[in-house]
User: What shape does this take?
Amino acid sequence: MTETPRVSPFRLLRRTLLAWFRKNKRPLPFRESPDAWRVWVSEVMLQQTRVEAMLPRYEDFVARFPDPGTLADASEDEVLAAWAGLGYYGRARALHRAARQLAAEGRGVPRTAGSLRRLPGVGDYTAAAIASIAFGVPAAAVDGNVRRVLSRLFMVEGFRGRAPFEGRIRELADRLMEADGARDPGGWNQALMELGATVCAPAVPRCGRCPVREFCWSRVAGRQTEFPERPPRPPAVSVRLAVAVVRDGEGRILVFRRSESPMRGLYELPCGEYRSDESAEAALVREATTRYGIRLQPGRELAGFRHTVMNRRIEVVPFEAELADPAPGGIVPGGRFVDPQDLDRIPSGSMLLKALQRVGSTP
Ligand code: SF4
Assistant: This one.
Protein backbone atom coordinates (compact mmCIF):
# COMPACT_ATOMS: atom_id res chain seq x y z
CA MET A 1 0.00 0.00 0.00
CA THR A 2 1.41 3.41 -0.96
CA GLU A 3 1.20 6.30 1.49
CA THR A 4 -0.15 9.66 0.36
CA PRO A 5 2.74 12.15 0.70
CA ARG A 6 2.08 14.59 3.52
CA VAL A 7 1.99 18.25 2.43
CA SER A 8 3.58 20.55 5.00
CA PRO A 9 1.32 23.23 6.51
CA PHE A 10 3.66 25.94 5.19
CA ARG A 11 3.40 24.62 1.66
CA LEU A 12 -0.38 24.27 1.95
CA LEU A 13 -0.74 27.80 3.31
CA ARG A 14 1.41 29.13 0.47
CA ARG A 15 -0.56 27.30 -2.22
CA THR A 16 -3.91 28.38 -0.76
CA LEU A 17 -2.96 32.05 -0.52
CA LEU A 18 -1.36 32.14 -3.97
CA ALA A 19 -4.45 30.56 -5.54
CA TRP A 20 -6.62 33.15 -3.82
CA PHE A 21 -4.35 35.98 -4.99
CA ARG A 22 -4.37 34.87 -8.62
CA LYS A 23 -8.17 34.91 -8.58
CA ASN A 24 -8.75 38.02 -6.47
CA LYS A 25 -5.87 40.41 -7.04
CA ARG A 26 -6.74 44.00 -7.80
CA PRO A 27 -6.00 44.92 -11.43
CA LEU A 28 -3.31 47.53 -10.76
CA PRO A 29 -1.37 49.02 -13.69
CA PHE A 30 2.07 48.04 -12.38
CA ARG A 31 0.90 44.42 -12.23
CA GLU A 32 0.23 44.26 -15.95
CA SER A 33 3.88 44.28 -16.95
CA PRO A 34 6.44 43.54 -14.25
CA ASP A 35 8.92 46.08 -15.61
CA ALA A 36 11.57 46.73 -12.93
CA TRP A 37 11.36 50.54 -13.15
CA ARG A 38 7.56 50.57 -12.92
CA VAL A 39 7.67 48.17 -9.97
CA TRP A 40 10.30 50.35 -8.29
CA VAL A 41 8.32 53.58 -8.73
CA SER A 42 5.10 51.94 -7.54
CA GLU A 43 6.75 50.44 -4.46
CA VAL A 44 8.31 53.77 -3.49
CA MET A 45 5.04 55.64 -3.99
CA LEU A 46 3.09 53.06 -1.99
CA GLN A 47 5.38 53.29 1.03
CA GLN A 48 3.36 56.06 2.67
CA THR A 49 0.45 56.57 0.31
CA ARG A 50 -2.79 54.64 -0.19
CA VAL A 51 -3.15 52.93 -3.53
CA GLU A 52 -6.21 55.00 -4.55
CA ALA A 53 -4.32 58.26 -3.96
CA MET A 54 -1.17 56.98 -5.63
CA LEU A 55 -2.62 55.64 -8.90
CA PRO A 56 -3.31 58.92 -10.76
CA ARG A 57 0.12 60.27 -9.82
CA TYR A 58 1.82 57.02 -10.73
CA GLU A 59 0.47 57.07 -14.30
CA ASP A 60 1.60 60.67 -14.82
CA PHE A 61 4.99 60.02 -13.24
CA VAL A 62 5.92 56.96 -15.33
CA ALA A 63 4.61 58.67 -18.47
CA ARG A 64 6.86 61.66 -17.73
CA PHE A 65 9.82 59.49 -16.56
CA PRO A 66 9.51 56.12 -18.33
CA ASP A 67 12.94 54.88 -17.16
CA PRO A 68 15.70 55.77 -14.67
CA GLY A 69 17.58 57.69 -17.40
CA THR A 70 14.81 60.24 -17.96
CA LEU A 71 14.51 60.79 -14.22
CA ALA A 72 18.29 61.21 -13.91
CA ASP A 73 18.20 63.92 -16.60
CA ALA A 74 15.46 65.90 -14.82
CA SER A 75 16.11 68.67 -12.30
CA GLU A 76 15.08 68.24 -8.66
CA ASP A 77 12.36 70.86 -9.19
CA GLU A 78 10.84 68.84 -12.04
CA VAL A 79 10.93 65.65 -9.96
CA LEU A 80 9.34 67.28 -6.92
CA ALA A 81 6.67 68.88 -9.11
CA ALA A 82 5.79 65.48 -10.60
CA TRP A 83 5.60 64.10 -7.06
CA ALA A 84 3.31 66.93 -5.84
CA GLY A 85 0.33 65.66 -3.89
CA LEU A 86 1.99 62.44 -2.75
CA GLY A 87 3.83 63.96 0.23
CA TYR A 88 6.95 62.53 1.88
CA TYR A 89 9.16 64.15 -0.75
CA GLY A 90 12.29 62.51 0.65
CA ARG A 91 11.17 59.42 -1.32
CA ALA A 92 11.24 61.38 -4.58
CA ARG A 93 14.65 62.86 -3.83
CA ALA A 94 16.10 59.44 -3.02
CA LEU A 95 14.62 57.93 -6.21
CA HIS A 96 16.17 60.80 -8.16
CA ARG A 97 19.58 60.23 -6.54
CA ALA A 98 19.37 56.50 -7.26
CA ALA A 99 18.50 57.14 -10.92
CA ARG A 100 21.45 59.50 -11.21
CA GLN A 101 23.74 56.95 -9.60
CA LEU A 102 22.67 54.31 -12.13
CA ALA A 103 23.12 56.79 -14.98
CA ALA A 104 26.61 57.70 -13.72
CA GLU A 105 27.53 54.01 -13.51
CA GLY A 106 25.99 53.36 -16.94
CA ARG A 107 23.77 50.50 -15.83
CA GLY A 108 20.08 49.66 -15.60
CA VAL A 109 18.01 48.56 -12.61
CA PRO A 110 20.05 45.92 -10.69
CA ARG A 111 18.61 42.41 -10.69
CA THR A 112 19.45 41.24 -7.16
CA ALA A 113 18.13 42.38 -3.81
CA GLY A 114 21.70 42.94 -2.56
CA SER A 115 22.64 45.36 -5.39
CA LEU A 116 19.30 47.14 -5.23
CA ARG A 117 19.75 47.59 -1.49
CA ARG A 118 22.87 49.67 -2.09
CA LEU A 119 20.92 52.37 -3.96
CA PRO A 120 19.71 55.51 -2.14
CA GLY A 121 16.25 55.11 -0.65
CA VAL A 122 16.04 51.36 -1.31
CA GLY A 123 15.58 49.40 1.91
CA ASP A 124 15.29 45.65 2.46
CA TYR A 125 11.59 45.63 1.64
CA THR A 126 11.80 47.60 -1.62
CA ALA A 127 14.86 45.66 -2.80
CA ALA A 128 13.12 42.33 -2.19
CA ALA A 129 9.88 43.52 -3.82
CA ILE A 130 11.64 44.71 -7.01
CA ALA A 131 13.93 41.66 -7.24
CA SER A 132 11.08 39.17 -6.73
CA ILE A 133 8.38 40.83 -8.84
CA ALA A 134 10.53 42.01 -11.74
CA PHE A 135 13.25 39.32 -11.80
CA GLY A 136 11.75 36.30 -10.00
CA VAL A 137 14.35 36.32 -7.19
CA PRO A 138 13.11 34.41 -4.09
CA ALA A 139 13.59 37.30 -1.64
CA ALA A 140 10.90 37.74 1.01
CA ALA A 141 9.57 41.32 1.12
CA VAL A 142 8.49 42.30 4.62
CA ASP A 143 6.47 45.50 4.97
CA GLY A 144 3.87 46.61 7.51
CA ASN A 145 1.13 44.52 5.91
CA VAL A 146 3.27 41.40 5.89
CA ARG A 147 4.35 41.94 9.51
CA ARG A 148 0.72 42.23 10.55
CA VAL A 149 -0.41 39.15 8.61
CA LEU A 150 2.45 36.96 9.82
CA SER A 151 2.19 38.12 13.42
CA ARG A 152 -1.51 37.16 13.38
CA LEU A 153 -1.08 33.90 11.51
CA PHE A 154 1.61 32.69 13.92
CA MET A 155 0.86 34.77 17.03
CA VAL A 156 4.25 36.45 17.02
CA GLU A 157 4.70 38.39 20.24
CA GLY A 158 6.77 41.52 20.78
CA PHE A 159 6.95 45.01 19.33
CA ARG A 160 7.71 46.04 15.78
CA GLY A 161 11.25 47.21 15.34
CA ARG A 162 12.51 45.13 18.28
CA ALA A 163 14.87 42.24 17.66
CA PRO A 164 12.84 39.23 18.91
CA PHE A 165 9.74 40.23 16.91
CA GLU A 166 11.59 41.21 13.74
CA GLY A 167 13.79 38.09 13.91
CA ARG A 168 10.80 35.76 14.16
CA ILE A 169 8.92 37.57 11.36
CA ARG A 170 12.00 37.38 9.12
CA GLU A 171 12.40 33.67 9.86
CA LEU A 172 8.74 32.96 9.02
CA ALA A 173 8.84 35.11 5.88
CA ASP A 174 11.96 33.31 4.60
CA ARG A 175 10.54 29.89 5.41
CA LEU A 176 7.28 30.64 3.62
CA MET A 177 9.15 32.01 0.62
CA GLU A 178 11.21 28.82 0.35
CA ALA A 179 8.26 26.45 0.94
CA ASP A 180 6.87 24.75 -2.17
CA GLY A 181 10.12 25.21 -4.10
CA ALA A 182 9.98 29.03 -3.88
CA ARG A 183 7.66 29.11 -6.88
CA ASP A 184 6.44 32.47 -8.17
CA PRO A 185 8.32 34.62 -5.60
CA GLY A 186 6.86 37.89 -6.88
CA GLY A 187 3.31 36.51 -6.80
CA TRP A 188 3.84 35.17 -3.29
CA ASN A 189 5.15 38.48 -1.93
CA GLN A 190 2.23 40.31 -3.51
CA ALA A 191 -0.27 37.73 -2.20
CA LEU A 192 0.82 38.35 1.40
CA MET A 193 0.72 42.12 0.91
CA GLU A 194 -2.68 41.91 -0.81
CA LEU A 195 -4.11 39.90 2.06
CA GLY A 196 -2.89 42.54 4.51
CA ALA A 197 -4.19 45.40 2.36
CA THR A 198 -7.64 44.03 1.60
CA VAL A 199 -8.60 41.37 4.19
CA CYS A 200 -6.34 41.30 7.25
CA ALA A 201 -6.98 44.98 7.96
CA PRO A 202 -5.28 46.67 10.95
CA ALA A 203 -8.30 47.44 13.13
CA VAL A 204 -10.91 44.90 11.98
CA PRO A 205 -9.57 41.84 10.14
CA ARG A 206 -12.21 40.26 7.88
CA CYS A 207 -11.53 36.73 9.03
CA GLY A 208 -14.80 35.39 7.57
CA ARG A 209 -13.48 36.21 4.07
CA CYS A 210 -9.90 35.16 4.71
CA PRO A 211 -8.58 32.37 2.48
CA VAL A 212 -6.08 31.22 5.13
CA ARG A 213 -8.28 31.42 8.22
CA GLU A 214 -7.85 27.69 8.81
CA PHE A 215 -4.11 28.27 9.26
CA CYS A 216 -4.42 31.31 11.50
CA TRP A 217 -3.44 30.68 15.11
CA SER A 218 -4.73 34.00 16.42
CA ARG A 219 -8.16 33.49 14.78
CA VAL A 220 -8.44 30.06 16.37
CA ALA A 221 -7.54 31.66 19.71
CA GLY A 222 -9.95 34.58 19.10
CA ARG A 223 -7.06 37.04 19.59
CA GLN A 224 -6.61 38.52 16.09
CA THR A 225 -6.59 42.18 17.11
CA GLU A 226 -3.96 41.61 19.80
CA PHE A 227 -1.33 41.14 17.06
CA PRO A 228 0.95 42.81 16.32
CA GLU A 229 1.40 44.24 19.80
CA ARG A 230 1.56 48.02 19.98
CA PRO A 231 4.37 49.71 21.86
CA PRO A 232 3.42 52.62 24.11
CA ARG A 233 3.19 55.85 22.09
CA PRO A 234 5.61 58.68 22.81
CA PRO A 235 3.86 61.55 24.56
CA ALA A 236 2.26 64.07 22.21
CA VAL A 237 3.87 67.49 21.86
CA SER A 238 1.55 70.49 21.43
CA VAL A 239 2.66 73.30 19.13
CA ARG A 240 0.97 76.56 18.12
CA LEU A 241 1.62 77.89 14.67
CA ALA A 242 0.59 81.25 13.23
CA VAL A 243 0.25 81.26 9.44
CA ALA A 244 -0.06 84.18 7.03
CA VAL A 245 -2.17 84.18 3.86
CA VAL A 246 -0.79 87.05 1.78
CA ARG A 247 -2.36 87.78 -1.60
CA ASP A 248 -1.22 90.04 -4.39
CA GLY A 249 -3.55 92.21 -6.48
CA GLU A 250 -4.47 89.20 -8.64
CA GLY A 251 -5.47 86.98 -5.73
CA ARG A 252 -2.32 84.87 -5.91
CA ILE A 253 -0.89 83.50 -2.67
CA LEU A 254 2.61 84.15 -1.33
CA VAL A 255 4.60 81.00 -0.61
CA PHE A 256 8.22 80.35 0.32
CA ARG A 257 10.40 77.38 -0.32
CA ARG A 258 11.56 75.77 2.87
CA SER A 259 15.30 75.41 3.20
CA GLU A 260 15.51 73.33 6.39
CA SER A 261 14.56 69.74 7.15
CA PRO A 262 12.07 68.28 7.57
CA MET A 263 10.10 69.36 4.47
CA ARG A 264 13.17 70.90 2.80
CA GLY A 265 12.34 72.03 -0.74
CA LEU A 266 8.58 72.17 -0.15
CA TYR A 267 6.54 75.34 -0.39
CA GLU A 268 4.88 76.72 2.70
CA LEU A 269 2.96 79.78 3.79
CA PRO A 270 4.93 82.22 5.92
CA CYS A 271 4.50 80.89 9.43
CA GLY A 272 6.00 80.77 12.89
CA GLU A 273 5.57 78.83 16.11
CA TYR A 274 4.58 80.84 19.13
CA ARG A 275 4.62 80.43 22.88
CA SER A 276 1.70 80.76 25.24
CA ASP A 277 3.10 84.05 26.60
CA GLU A 278 3.09 85.88 23.24
CA SER A 279 0.44 86.70 20.68
CA ALA A 280 0.14 84.83 17.40
CA GLU A 281 0.40 88.12 15.48
CA ALA A 282 3.63 89.11 17.25
CA ALA A 283 5.16 85.71 16.50
CA LEU A 284 4.13 85.97 12.86
CA VAL A 285 5.73 89.40 12.48
CA ARG A 286 8.92 88.21 14.18
CA GLU A 287 9.25 84.97 12.18
CA ALA A 288 8.40 86.72 8.92
CA THR A 289 11.34 89.04 9.47
CA THR A 290 13.88 86.48 10.66
CA ARG A 291 12.94 83.50 8.48
CA TYR A 292 11.60 85.05 5.31
CA GLY A 293 13.08 88.55 5.34
CA ILE A 294 9.71 90.30 4.92
CA ARG A 295 7.74 92.74 7.05
CA LEU A 296 4.21 91.50 7.61
CA GLN A 297 1.09 93.22 8.79
CA PRO A 298 -1.31 90.58 10.11
CA GLY A 299 -5.00 91.36 9.54
CA ARG A 300 -8.18 89.34 10.12
CA GLU A 301 -7.83 86.07 12.01
CA LEU A 302 -9.31 83.14 10.07
CA ALA A 303 -10.82 79.89 11.33
CA GLY A 304 -8.09 77.79 12.93
CA PHE A 305 -7.64 74.04 12.69
CA ARG A 306 -5.56 71.22 14.07
CA HIS A 307 -2.95 69.32 12.13
CA THR A 308 -1.03 66.28 13.35
CA VAL A 309 2.42 65.25 12.18
CA MET A 310 3.84 62.20 13.95
CA ASN A 311 3.53 63.03 17.68
CA ARG A 312 3.24 66.81 17.09
CA ARG A 313 -0.26 68.19 17.53
CA ILE A 314 -0.24 71.52 15.80
CA GLU A 315 -2.85 74.18 16.47
CA VAL A 316 -2.83 76.31 13.33
CA VAL A 317 -4.04 79.91 13.50
CA PRO A 318 -4.20 81.50 10.02
CA PHE A 319 -4.34 85.25 9.40
CA GLU A 320 -4.96 87.31 6.34
CA ALA A 321 -1.90 89.50 6.06
CA GLU A 322 -0.28 92.16 3.91
CA LEU A 323 3.29 93.05 3.14
CA ALA A 324 4.18 96.19 5.11
CA ASP A 325 6.52 97.43 2.39
CA PRO A 326 5.70 95.67 -0.89
CA ALA A 327 8.48 95.86 -3.43
CA PRO A 328 7.79 97.42 -6.82
CA GLY A 329 6.50 94.82 -9.27
CA GLY A 330 5.38 92.55 -6.41
CA ILE A 331 8.74 90.79 -6.24
CA VAL A 332 9.50 89.14 -2.89
CA PRO A 333 13.05 87.78 -2.66
CA GLY A 334 12.93 84.05 -1.85
CA GLY A 335 9.15 83.88 -2.24
CA ARG A 336 6.73 83.59 -5.10
CA PHE A 337 3.06 84.28 -5.68
CA VAL A 338 1.13 81.23 -6.87
CA ASP A 339 -2.29 81.08 -8.44
CA PRO A 340 -4.59 79.00 -6.17
CA GLN A 341 -5.40 76.87 -9.23
CA ASP A 342 -1.74 75.85 -9.44
CA LEU A 343 -1.22 74.99 -5.79
CA ASP A 344 -1.62 71.26 -6.30
CA ARG A 345 1.16 71.39 -8.91
CA ILE A 346 3.86 72.68 -6.59
CA PRO A 347 5.52 70.49 -3.97
CA SER A 348 3.98 71.37 -0.64
CA GLY A 349 3.03 69.86 2.69
CA SER A 350 -0.58 68.92 3.36
CA MET A 351 -0.83 71.72 5.94
CA LEU A 352 -0.54 74.40 3.25
CA LEU A 353 -3.46 72.91 1.34
CA LYS A 354 -5.47 72.54 4.53
CA ALA A 355 -4.84 76.17 5.47
CA LEU A 356 -5.91 77.37 2.04
CA GLN A 357 -9.02 75.21 2.06
CA ARG A 358 -10.02 77.06 5.20
CA VAL A 359 -9.84 80.38 3.41
CA GLY A 360 -11.49 79.10 0.24
CA SER A 361 -8.41 79.33 -1.94
CA THR A 362 -7.85 75.80 -3.10
CA PRO A 363 -8.62 74.73 -6.66
S1 SF4 B 1 -7.88 34.75 9.76
FE1 SF4 B 1 -8.16 36.91 10.24
S2 SF4 B 1 -6.40 37.49 11.50
FE2 SF4 B 1 -5.91 35.54 10.50
S3 SF4 B 1 -4.79 36.14 8.66
FE3 SF4 B 1 -6.93 35.92 8.09
S4 SF4 B 1 -7.83 37.98 8.30
FE4 SF4 B 1 -5.86 37.95 9.38
Observations:
- Residues 36 and 134 are 5 Å apart (CA to CA).
